[in-house]
Specification:
Largest sheet: 5 strands, antiparallel
Mean pLDDT: 86
Number of strands: 12
Number of helices: 9
Helix content: 40-55%
Distance between the termini: 43 Å
Structural class: alpha+beta
Low-confidence stretches: 5-12
Order of helices and strands: EHHHEEEEEEEEHHHEHHEEH
Strand content: 15-25%
Strand order of the largest sheet: 1-2-9-4-7
Length: 239
Amino acid sequence: MKSQPANPPITFKTRIIELLRHTPLLQAFSPQQFTILLQHSKTHYLKEGEMLFRQDEPLQEVFICLSGCIKLFHLTADGHEKIINIIPPGQNFAEAMLFTEGNRCHMNAAALKQAEVLGIPAVQFLAFLNESPLLCFNVMGLLSKRIQWLLDEVDRLSLHNATFRLIYFLLETHQHPDYCNIISLDVPKHVIASRLSVRPETLSRILKNLAKQDLIALHDHKIELVDIEGLKTLLSHGI
């Protein structure tokens, strides 16, 4: 993993500053705190497949994806990957692990494709939290939303079928500011299948079935959401 100290060229700062300012993790920090965090941070440049951190390693930073995609995953007993989440640009991750016993990573993180990730020193991040109860409450609110998302995800995986999970994933991805009605599959289908806990062939079959119903259209590595209201209706009926 290659890193470069903060204070990047102006062109780089201009490109990421707005992205960082709108990142949920940093919205609660004052402009002065925001500047100090960036000054102490560093950028990790990852090749496709390169690890950012491994399970059980000490957590020394919290992270924000700047470009590319990061996968968070566990390894099963037989060595297979179970994708927990796919992190797009502008999303923070790993901050919850700061508050676990030993401050250790409880999963693995690697680049799904070439990626840039900002690493904020955990020591500086925690120092600001110690100074401000308001910041603590704001971060607690963020973590509460993350916990609720995880609880909902358990519900989707245990109570709903593969079609429901895929439609929910498409609609959730559609809300990302980089997409309109066309979703680019920036990661391989087997990665999405793992994320949804379905087999790759099952994923392909469901995509074709949705296309036959004119709910989506498949274009090479892109999925067009043709009938968003129709997809939402299927979700509301529980498929």
